[in-house]
Specification:
By secondary structure, the protein is α/β, with parallel strands linked by helices. Helix content is 38%, strand content 17%. Helix 1 packs across helix 2, helix 3 packs parallel to helix 4 and helix 8 runs parallel beside helix 9. The C terminus is likely disordered.
């Protein structure tokens, strides 16, 4: 794995915010930064601009966009090794290929010309296909670390443990704390009342759901007890996981969630929590990937308490 970060830049406000965030991350870790502007047609020399005088002018202007992105990176994080690149082809595929061996790929939530989409097509494609962790940055995100905690959605699944590991790593590096949230809802909302009356005649659906959420959170607490380098706080929150995490993202510097699926080009599917969180969170969202941080003992999947998917 190469010690570098790949970030896409297309002149949009979201991509500029992504560049700034990626630059501070790369500089603080001593990693290189590839600022990639994707333009033109795949398989066409010069992106289809041709070798005429006009074609060369177009290519120069395209190159200037990549260089502008690199300047934004250096302004945000003086001293960062920012390298402008121009690539041709479908933006998502190009960024995924460039980040195949990278530590991280960073994209803006929306790109230029996609103002009506909650998440742009490039960001969506990267999220579904990248092999490395992905960070999606909204336009208003701050580049600096600040003192806000790293927020982690936790549901006891393997993906949630990956998110917890990544969140602790980020918080330790940034010198801040971790806030782990397990959201729960009354089980009767998703299962028929007759089932609960028969299975748990002496207990209400809310009591059953809360107890399961407490068991989920305790597994995370047991795992985090070995982390001496960072403060980790755990909390239960009543409500649907995506809504809870989006609301709490207002007071977080970074939100970390897991995914469902196999990743890579095997058509990873974002879960019902991670998708709306990426769309609406008010801070950058880190979507984990790396399998080497999965605990050896995979915990059982919770039935009702879900905070990340």
């Amino acid at each position: 794995m190469d010690d570098r970060v790949v970030v896409g830049y297309d002149t949009s406000a979201e991509s500029a915010a992504a560049v700034r965030w990626a630059a501070t991350q790369a500089l603080s870790r001593g990693w290189e930064l590839d600022v990639v502007h994707v333009w033109g047609f795949a398989g066409r020399e010069g992106g289809g601009a041709g070798e005429s005088w006009l074609g060369r002018e177009v290519q120069e202007q395209v190159r200037a966009v990549a260089e502008e992105g690199a300047r934004i990176a250096v302004e945000a994080a003086p001293g960062v090794d920012a390298r402008p690149e121009v690539r041709h082809g479908p933006p998502a595929r190009v960024l995924v290929d460039r980040a195949a061996d990278a530590r991280l790929v960073v994209v803006g939530r929306r790109g230029a010309g996609l103002v009506t989409a909650l998440v742009g097509s490039a960001a969506t494609g990267v999220l579904h296909r990248a092999r490395c962790p992905v960070v999606v940055v909204p336009a208003g995100a701050h580049a600096g670390a600040g003192h806000e905690p790293v927020l982690v959605g936790f549901d006891g699944s393997a993906g949630a443990f990956r998110a917890l590991e990544a969140g602790c790593d980020q918080a330790s590096h940034l010198g801040t704390s971790v806030s782990v949230v397990t959201a729960w809802t009354t089980a009767v909302e998703t299962t028929s009342p007759a089932y609960w009356a028969l299975s748990y005649p002496q207990r209400s659906p809310a009591e059953v759901a809360l107890e399961e959420a407490e068991r989920v959170l305790e597994r995370g607490r047991s795992w985090a007890a070995s982390r001496r380098d960072v403060d980790v706080a755990f909390d239960l929150a009543e409500g649907r996981p995506a809504q809870v995490l989006v609301r709490r993202s207002r007071h977080a510097g970074l939100l970390v969630v897991g995914t469902r699926g196999r990743g890579g080009f095997a058509s990873l599917v974002l879960g019902s929590t991670s998708r709306p969180v990426v769309q609406r969170a008010e801070c950058p969202v880190l979507v984990t990937r790396s399998p080497e941080v999965v605990p050896e003992q995979r915990p059982p999947r919770p039935e009702r308490a879900t905070a990340s998917a």
